[in-house]
Specification:
CATH superfamily of the largest domain in chain B: Cytochrome c oxidase-like, subunit I domain
Bound molecules: protoporphyrin IX containing FE
Number of strands of chain B: 2
Order of helices and strands of chain B: HHHHHEEHHHHHHHHHHHH
CATH architecture of the largest domain in chain B: Up-down Bundle
Shape of chain A: elongated
Number of domains of chain B: 2
Oligomer: heterodimer
Shape of chain B: globular
Helix content of chain B: over 70%
Order of helices and strands of chain A: HHHHHHHHHHHEEHEEH
Number of strands of chain A: 4
Chain lengths: 312, 464
Amino acid sequence: MAGGIYNKPIVFALTATVVILIGTAVTMFYPMLTPEMHPKLENLKPFTALQLAGRDIYQREGCVNCHTQTVRPLKSEVMRYGEYSKAGEFAYDRPFLWGSKRTGPDLARIGGKYPDAWHYKHFDKPQAMFAESNMPAYTFLKDEKLDPASIEAHMKGLSMPYTTEEMAALSGKTGMDALVAYMQVIGTAVKKAAAPAAAVASTVKEKHFENPLAGNPQAIAKGKDLYAKNCATCHGANAKGDIGPSLVDDEFFYEKGDLPDDDYFEVTNNGTSEGYTEDGRVGKGGMPGFKDSLSKDDIWSIVAYLRSIKGK
Amino acid sequence: MNDYQYDNQTVKGFVVSSVFWGVVGIVIGLLISIQMWRPEFNFAPFFTFGRLRTVHTNSLAFGLGVGAIFGLSYYILMRLTKRPLLFPKLARIQLYLFNIGIAAAAVTLFMGMTQSLEYAELEWPLDIAIVILWVMFAVNVFGTIIKRKEEQMYISLWYIIATVIAVAVLYIINNLSIPVGPFKSYHLFAGVNSANVEWWYGHNAVGFVFTTPILAMFYYFLPKSTGIPIFSHRLSIISFWSLVFAYLWTGAHHLVYTPLPDWIQTLGIVFTIFLIAPSWGSVVNGYYTVGSDWDKMNTQYLTKFFIMGITFYGLQTVQGPTQGLRVVSQLIHYTDWVPGHVHMGTMGWVTMTTAASIYYVIPKIYHTEIYSIKVANIHFWLVLIGQLIFSITMWITGIQQGALWKAVNDDGSLKYSFVETLTKNYPFWQLRTVGGLIFTVGMLFFIYNIYMTIRRGSLAEAKA
Ligand code: HEM
Ligand code: HEM
């Protein structure tokens, strides 16, 4: 028989087809028919027109060639990026944009990580924020006007719900607006895990923790360095405020009167979201938490540094 | 004889086009390798890394790869069926359409028209063109084989037939999409399912573009250029069927630790490990073939190309299954290790074997000898050194990256910010550009050699 098939091209081709289709059927066709390949989280929402326009730009610019959008369930990865990715988060993703190379960081939890202003500044010139970044500048997106007609066609094609007001609001928006809107929605269907605070954050504190490194010159020098690397992009090189508020004035969370060192510690450790309260004061959100990327000593050093330059 | 002459010109047309698109792809490869350590080399909007990387992979996989596959498969086909192509004019039209298609592909990718599916980036009008091209190819392959003048089908024909069938199935299914504009569409599949379909496709694009047709070349041109018959027919039967069976199960090794259901990942990994066996079937067959007369490594200049090519194929097919294991994947996935793997395969196996096949074919078409064996040897050493620098630097920096991403301080916080881990790649990325340059110079020697051979051949013909 073995001799036979190699003289009969049609039989050979049919056999080869069957052989190829077995693995295909088991690993690709069959799963498609099961619900486990079509999961959807309850609070996952379809894209708005502006978000979809941003996603189109994400596709067009090949951001997927440098950025992934899946956090694997590995300890260090969850620490770096946030809660690991769930199958039900991607029901509206056509195609999936998980990517295969992390030249830049994962973006699966980028939504809400930074304030909008951060993204505008970053897309305009990444190197202005991270001198050694190799991400291309996308300045031209600021001048690119969106085309509501084609976005509407895209929404229709995907059967995404939209309103006429929503479409009307698109004219006048830029490509950069759309891309930022898309950034802010990625991964938001999964609740952020509350930060297990190192020092307990409470609404109003009875007792404050001392900064163990207050006034320590070595810590201040180290804090200066860490500040430049981690905080200056948002709070400004001299900490007088930019995207985030000034850290050297007499206000905290938009009210007169500074708060003690441990409140600085906690905000830096935990990060804030809208409505976050620290010692009775309410924040507006947008401050990322540093509990996984900075040690306690690091944070206390930064606070010591900030105190050393306060009012200067 | 005249019919062969016409078809030979078609073969030559494909070979020259393939080399042309190869050069385009390699030059863009050099540019993106520089962009990775010098972002000022991004020229927005058309020439940023995000868009160019796709032009690089497509012009090499579809321009260099598929162009060579078309041309060399036709050459092999005619020799093994002992007749000219059944539809010579169709093949000629296919050649023109191929070049128009690849040019259009490059332009649309520069413009950012992409489906964002790796190796299936081209938008739907081009997908249709590619399916038409493939049907033309299939018609000629099957037609010519059915009307063949040689009873037995040799190994290379099996691999060509498998390629024709598998690529058609893979390409059509993964490119099913919802068109929403002239050059914009969305994947028909969503989320996890989209990922599963894409990597079922993606891995087998590697399997049926960068493996089976290259093996067809290997099995044909190695015995031809050495004059030694293939070592074991039985071994090639076993490796063929187990290879085409196992390949289709393994796509999930690209999705290890993602939200893809665990059982698909595990099944994929099991078959991934199994793939070592059929792959090494061909490696062993190649070694033992030349093994009967190792002198050929010195006396016949093409032998070392084929043996080096199959050696890298062998290394690639041990490294690949290792990468699929969960413990290894968690470290190297998403890092530069993977481009290291990729370029050992594409530069060391695909380009090496294809170039050697072209060295064999061009003088045969022109009834002449290769212009210079010395130039071919220089070519060989340069591409070998260039590729080794590329792969080795990427493996080192890939492992480093994986380790730095995981590193934690005593108190459990992460040791390095992302940007700190990024900058540690820069010296290696610079070295990679050097490796790429050496490889490119090697390819220029190759092109010069082929050009001079064609020139000499046409001169001889003009005189005759
Ligand atoms: C001068 C020679 C070359 C240079 C400098 C070069 C450079 C590059 C660079 C910089 C990348 C992006 C890696 C990343 O994103 O981290 C890449 C990816 C790629 N290149 Fe090349 N390349 C060259 C030759 C080739 C050849 C000859 C082929 C194929 C025949 C090829 C196929 C690919 C593929 C398939 C990828 C995608 C890899 C992945 O997704 O992991 N390259 N190349
Ligand atoms: C037994 C054979 C092989 C196996 C099991 C295998 C396995 C793998 C695995 C597991 C990955 C994913 C790495 C990761 O992202 O973590 C990978 C990537 C890749 N391999 Fe292989 N490999 C094999 C042979 C080859 C060959 C011969 C080539 C020829 C060039 C090749 C080209 C590629 C390419 C282009 C990618 C990158 C895909 C992407 O992320 O874009 N592989 N391979």
